[in-house]
Amino acid sequence: MKKIIALFIFFSSMTGAVALDEAFGTLSGARISYEQNIAQGDTMLFIWTSRCPYCISELREMNKNEDLCKYFKCFFVNVGEGESSVKEVVNSLKLKSHISQNIIMDKSASLAGKFSIVGVPTFIFMRDGKVLNRSYHFDETAVKQIFKK
Q1: Is the backbone of residue 46 left (phi > 0), alpha (psi -120 to 50) or beta?
Q2: CB within 8 Å of 9: residues ≥ 6 apart
Q3: DSSP 105-121
Q4: pLDDT digits (tens, 9 = 90+) for 16-31
Q5: Nearest-CA neighbor of 74 among 113, 56, 47?
Q6: What average pLDDT does range 7-16 have in this prediction?
Q7: Structural domain count, the chain
Q8: What share of the chain is helix, strand, coil (3-state, %, to 5)?
Q9: pTM recorded for the entire structure
């Protein structure tokens, strides 16, 4: 419980500023541009940490659905952790490529701060950089309604 409270305090202290041209590293070593990749088209961000049991549960469920990112872009934003912690989760959950190749390492929590994240897990659903909805649980039916797919 203390860890969850600490995460709430950590996230609420973020400034929320993300430069339009800011790029974020992925677990695979690629760079993802906020303006060109994240803020274009229909996008889902899943904000998570490896120490959050609810985040791990959501990752397990999303791992079962390989069509998850068929109709919109999906990014799995790990906040404030190092690569070794994230790789441990990827390996222990045997995360498939639709997740593992789209993990953004938000070590400074600037992306989480942009969306005023106060706890994890959090799902952000966007169209062209504008937030359409946010949720703390993934519901495929609701997502289809949000993106009208």
Answers
A1: beta
A2: none
A3: EETT-HHHHHTT--SSS
A4: 445 546 889 999 999 9
A5: 47
A6: 45
A7: 1
A8: 40, 25, 40
A9: 0.85
Has residue 20 been placed in a domain? no
- Sheet of strand 73-79: strand arrangement: 31-33, 23-26, 103-106, 73-79, 42-48, 122-127, 130-135
- Look up residue 11 and give its amino acid: F
Do the bridges between strand 23-26 and strand 31-33 make them parallel or antiparallel, or are there none, so unpaired? antiparallel
Look at residue 21 and tell me if it is in a domain. no
pLDDT tens digit sequence for 99-115: 999 999 999 999 999 99
What is the Cα–Cα distance from 105 to 94, expressed in whole angstroms? 18
Gyration radius from the chain CA atoms: 14
- The closest of 116, 107, 104 to 17, measured between CA atoms, is 116
Report the CATH number at residue 38: 3.40.30.10
Domain with 60, as residue range(s), is 2-15+29-147
3 state SS of 47: strand
In angstroms, rounded to a whole number, what is the distance separating the alpha carbons of residues 69 and 103? 13
